[in-house]
Amino acid sequence: MLPDPCHLLSCMPACRALQARKHIAASFEALQPVFKALLGAYGAHLRAEWFSWEAYLWAVELWYAYAIQVRLPHRPHLAVA
After folding, report:
1. Beta bridge partners of 75
2. C-alpha distances in angstroms, 14 versus 24, 43, 75, 80?
3. Would you state the pLDDT for residue 10?
4. How confident is the model at residue 18 (pLDDT cuts 50, 70, 90)?
5. What is the dihedral of CA 12, 26, 61, 68, to 10 degrees?
6. Given 1, 38, 76, 80, which residue has the most CB atoms within 10 angstroms?
7. pTM attached to this predicted model
8. Greater model confidence, 7 or 24
9. Which sign does the torsion angle of CA 61, 69, 30, 9 carry?
10. Which residues of 33-67 are buried (b: 16+ CB within 10 A; e: fewer)?
11. What is the tens place of the pLDDT at every residue in 29-80?
12. DSSP letters along 5-27, please?
């Protein structure tokens, strides 16, 4: 088993960035079945490159950079950021 790379990093922000990157990569992998289903169902309207790692990472960075909040119409008091 490999050691946790955070123990090797002397800078806590670098460790947190590495953990965030792992979390984002895991989320991207978990969404692959959803992306494939969307492309299968709406392939005439969607492009495969919109569901690439680069596009996903761009969207996540945009989401966090602008602190976008989504208000659910059936529960306006709950916001997802």
Report:
1. 72
2. 15, 39, 36, 26
3. 67
4. confident
5. -110
6. 38
7. 0.67
8. 24
9. positive
10. eebeeeeeeeeeeeeeeebeeeebeeebeeeeeee
11. 999 999 999 999 999 999 999 999 999 999 999 888 887 677 777 765 655 5
12. GGGT-S-HHHHHHHHHHHHHHHH
Measured CA to CA, the distance from residue 74 to residue 72 in angstroms comes to 6
Residue 52 token pair: 């690439």
Tokens linked to 63: 């989401």
3-state DSSP assignment of residue 72: strand
Both tokens of residue 3?
Answer: 């050691």
Pairing mode, strands 70-72 and 75-80: antiparallel
